[in-house]
Amino acid sequence: MRLLAIIRIAFRALLKNVLRTSLTMLGIIIGVGAVIAMVSIGNGAKAQIEANIAALGQNVITVMSGNLRRGGFGMGFGSAGTLTREDMAAIEREVQGVMAISPEVRANAQVAAGNQNLSTSILGVAASFPDFRNWTFASGGPFTDQDVKSQTKVALIGKTTATSLFGETDPVGQTIRIKNAPFTIVGALNPKGAGFGGNDQDDVIMIPWTSAMTRLTGGTTFRNFTLQGESAEKLDEISEEISNLLRQRHRIQEGMDDDFFIRTQTETLETFTSTAKTMTVLLGSIAGVSLLVGGIGIMNIMLVSVTERTREIGIRMAVGAKSGDILSQFLAEAVALSLVGGIAGIAIGVGASRLISSQMGWPVLTSSNAIMVAFLFAAAIGIFFGFYPARKAAQLDPIESLRYE
Q: Rounded to the nearest 5 degrees, what angle is found at the Cα of 261, between the Cα atoms of 251 and 194?
């Protein structure tokens, strides 16, 4: 009952000057709202990155070729094709846990269908590529291993390219010309949207890698392989086996740099999500400064309140109130300011997050943990910044307080 009385008296004191109370809470409201909005933006970015990486496939390992050096300078991975068909066959044959493997032969080419003509990305892949890279089909289906062996002129088409060439007509069964070579579309891919670099993943045509090498690039080596591992737990082990195999095949001596680079899906996820986490912490920390400013405002107002109510404090002590009662009273007022401001800030932060998402199209994710942390932090601010004024009020001399004008 005593606690309820303290809370009731605290709110009665705060409501005596509504304008001052509201302005004092404004710092906390802005701080909590800003923290929730900024953390929501950061969490949304992290969730989108995780979704984009998951869309790349299950348990994916990428082997990139080349670390070409000219004049003592490294040209970077992918600057030279150092991976061969024999390397791919050896990996598939000797490395345990590799469920599927596909080279990626990339080229840009003019594609024509009827009176439509455009430049798009051509991707030469194995028959298993769409499956382990999570590409699904709107119509038709993938080409076969036999199509790859026979260099058959068949193609899978992305949504953007299909719409540009055929409008809303089903492209399956249609013929397109890639560098004047006729290819028959056997599958229409479902849309995936933008990739990491903002590129349109649906602006693509996939053909057998053998056809791509023969008719488009004329190359004999690959820039990269994409593999599917047996499980996420075995990706590091598989990567180590591939590395040892390629070093042996490429006759790379101990101490020499590899002419290839291996990256697992787990490593890619950790790289990008760590960046998103850093951004979230940075945004939350910047917004958290507003909370500290709000706490300083509470301390300032509470000190003013102690000065204004000195005579009231003396009367309470004269009729039996103890120092602990005075301390509890003023501390309750400071915490009430923080908590009410925190609740209002939560509402504003959630609303601001949804407004940002709807108006700017940014991904946001408001978590219950962020709301709880912001609320508890607001309460802690009230206790921390309210304690000094409350302690000052509790230590006032009753006689001097009664004399105070």
A: 150
401 band by pLDDT with thresholds 50, 70 and 90 = low
Position 258 pLDDT exceeds 50: yes
Cβ proximity of 104 and 124 under 8 Å: yes
Please give the average per-residue pLDDT across 194-203, as a whole number.
71
Per-residue pLDDT tens digits for 168-188? 889 999 999 998 889 999 999
- Per-residue H/E/C for the chain: CHHHHHHHHHHHHHHCCHHHHHHHHHHHHHHHHHHHHHHHHHHHHHHHHHHHHHHCCCCEEEEEECEEEECCEEEEECCCCCECHHHHHHHHHHCCCEEEEEECEEEEEEEEECCEEEEEEEEEECCCHHHHCCCCEEEECCCCHHHHHCCCCEEEECHHHHHHHHCCCCCCCCEEEECCEEEEEEEEECCCCECCCCCECCCEEEEEHHHHHHHHHCCCCECEEEEEECCHHHHHHHHHHHHHHHHHHCCCCCCCCCCEEEEEHHHHHHHHHHHHHHHHHHHHHHHHHHHHHHHHHHHHHHHHHHHHCHHHHHHHHHCCCCHHHHHHHHHHHHHHHHHHHHHHHHHHHHHHHHHHHHHHCCCCCCCHHHHHHHHHHHHHHHHHHHHHHHHHHHCCCHHHHHHCC
Q: Using only the alpha carbons of the chain, give its radius of gyration.
A: 33
Answer yes or no: are the C-beta atoms of 84 and 66 closer than 8 Å.
Answer: no
pTM: predicted TM-score of the whole model, two decimal places: 0.63
Q: Which of 21-35, 69-83, 236-250, 308-322 has the lowest mean pLDDT?
A: 69-83
Provide the terminal-to-terminal Cα distance of the chain, rounded to the nearest Å: 33
